[in-house]
Hints:
Keywords: ATP-binding, Chemotaxis, Kinase, Nucleotide-binding, Phosphoprotein, Transferase, Two-component regulatory system
Radius of gyration: 28 Å
Helix content: 40-55%
Function: Involved in the transmission of sensory signals from the chemoreceptors to the flagellar motors. CheA is autophosphorylated; it can transfer its phosphate group to either CheB or CheY.
CATH superfamily of the largest domain: Histidine kinase-like ATPase, C-terminal domain
Largest sheet: 6 strands, mixed
Organism: Pontibacter chinhatensis
Number of strands: 18
EC number: 2.7.13.3
InterPro entries: Bact_Chemotaxis_CheA, CheA-like_dim, CheA-like_homodim_sf, CheW-like_dom_sf, CheW-lke_dom, HATPase_C_sf, HATPase_dom, His_kinase_dom
Number of domains: 4
Distance between the termini: 56 Å
CATH topology of the largest domain: Heat Shock Protein 90
Structural class: alpha+beta
Amino acid sequence: MKSREQEYKEIFIAEALEYFDALNRHISILEKEPESDETLAEIFRLLHNLKANSKAIGYLQISDVSHKLETAFSLIRNKELSFSDEVVKVLFDGVDLLGELIHNVDNPNYGEPDPLLLRNLDIIVENLSDSTIELAKVQRYNTSKNLALSELIYIQIRKLDHMMNLVGELMIDRDRILSISRELNSDELKSVSSHLYRITEELQYSVMDARLVNIGSLFNKFPRIVRDVAAAEGKQVNLVLEGHNIQIDRNILQIMADSLLHLVRNAITHGLEKPEERQAAGKDATGQLRLAAQSDRENVLLRLIDDGRGIDLNVVRRTAVEKQLVSADTARTMAEHELLSLLFEPGFSTAKEVTEFSGRGVGLDVVKNAIDSIGGRISVSSVKGSGTTFSMQLPTSIAVKGALLFEVDSIYFAIPLIHTEQVVSLDKDELHEVGGVLIADLKGETVTVVYLNELLNAPEQEMRLGDKTRLNGQVQNIIIVSYNNRKLGLIVDKLYRQQDIVVKPLSKPLEQIDIYGGVTLLGTGKVCLVLDVPAITRYFTQRRQI
């Protein structure tokens, strides 16, 4: 068991990191609104609390730096020190030093903080005229480092009490079922089983609820990042954050952190124009960047929107041909959404130069792979000259997924609902053989259709996916799935229902089969394989069949 001292330390670190993020955010706001007494008061409060807490637990270096920063802001609040660019740099460096000290409280090899940072703080605190300050040059904040969230989740006591009550009920019902099963009283067994199911389900959602965190814990890190990247690029950027209180599983948020960081950097370095370029195009000199979260049924929708130069489809088309992703003939006939989906292919990049923050060979495929790993979806839309929007649909939980159940060749399968567009029934005559594959017209959209029985069971050299004679029956049940702006129809034998499933990884050697994303156990005791829609879609994309 952890000692009480260790628990206090973990709580302090988690809280201190939240203060660190909040300080970065509020100083960024103060830089734009130097007359905001409310922002200044909040910064002062955060520093005062951090000073007191760190001193109480014995972290005197953190307490000392907090005290110096508190003094500096007190001078600013009393109009004794102007909030100049020179002073802002020192204050940001001081906050960076706080973050460094907080992250290294348990690191015996850390040593002492950078004396130049402390010297600059001392100069400001001693209230010298900022017009005569000669500040030491220090290393700026490194925005290329990975983002990390605290390992500690605050859980309200009432949530834990509720979970304990549910577990107690579950244990009582478990014992009752064991006793009743010996007596073989089926009516009572049915009643208890029904109650057990309800309690287990409620317990499941209670545990999931305990893992939820506000998405603002990630959003709050971006004002400082946007400020530093924009300054390095010589651009003016106004960041708008929306949906701080939307909740999502903490693990999903951690996986998304680096992906969102990559997208934000790209938006500033490649999407938004320099002030003079924007003004020449009739735009405001300051670029607008909006990061918004909202609930979307059982998912969370994240959108990153910029009003920059947009994506030039002709450049995308030319780059795709140069990198041999598609042939020149294919590229000429590709629709806009198909061209944009190529942005997520490995190695694809239209960047002409390497900058400090992007263009190092790490492309959008890394972002897509991260989102795939949690069962999410990403898409992009753009208007040349007006801007670009990245939309990410994320599950609120990794453990439990909504899925559609169906049967192929007397075997149960499931497809995550997040990749399911619709279910249709088509007559065999409505399917057409073109270029060795089946296609169907759905409301004017041509969609490739695959007979899953053929895909799952036939050896690759014997597969004839465009052969209608292999289909059973006249009417075909088709599940339309979507991945990376591409749609694919999957012909199945029988459709069942939607239900929440808990996906477990496959054991060896089945885990090496790409088209399976895991396995679940149905209430009947039958094993159900979960299909991996991204893997199936990639299978056909690589063969230029869709």
